[in-house]
Amino acid sequence: MGTGQVSLRRLILVIACAGLLPIGSCSDDTVDPPPPDRPFYKDLSADGPRDNGLYNLQLAYNDRNITRYDELLDADFVFFFSEYDVLNGTVAYWSRASEINANKNLFDPNYSNPVQEPVQDIDLSLVYPAGDDQWTQITPEDQVKYPGETWYTKSVIYELTIQLPGDFQYVARNREADFVVRVATKDTKQYWRIVVWEDDTGAGFSGLARGGAGAPAVEPSTWGRIKTLYWD
Hints:
It is a single chain. With 232 residues, the chain is an alpha+beta fold. It has a single domain, classed as Nuclear Transport Factor 2, Chain: A. Helix content is 25%, strand content 30%. The protein has six helices and nine strands. Strands 1, 2, 3, 4, 5, 6, 7, 8 and 9 form a nine-stranded mixed β-sheet that branches.
């Protein structure tokens, strides 16, 4: 074989190993397959399903993605705390700014507060009747601010586990929340946004519980109460 042919073969091999030509493997090393893709966030455009907002809410919590969470909330968003929480010292409601601040801290694994430890893991599951025909139409009370608008509400059952360092968990099981969505305009386009969120009335806490040796310490809670722990 001539010198020119050898040089050409070496050049092709170098290019292939650089990833420019699909000419088999240049090494016997085993490469692990890439991890499966994460679920995609769904489009919130007003011509799409209202359920997309609930889907994205669950995903944003489990991903601890404050940017995706922020885009779900209307400019006039209001969170109403459960009756139980209000009777035990929380405010009756708060606005969008407080909601974002609390969840930003809740999502931050490096959150620093002398009286509240950072969250290690979040596991949220929402259960609700699927389909836009399961949303109930309502008329907003303030027809001066929202003239002619139709809003939509749906009840959701949630299961939320917040894991702290060690074996401590805040757990909200089989609780209900009511969500109200409206169409909001941003940059001339219309999107579904959560405008009102009412947390579960709750049945009270059973106190700190431990299921046995090695089991996590579990404190029953509501979603709203967990948020208040990370508000400041």
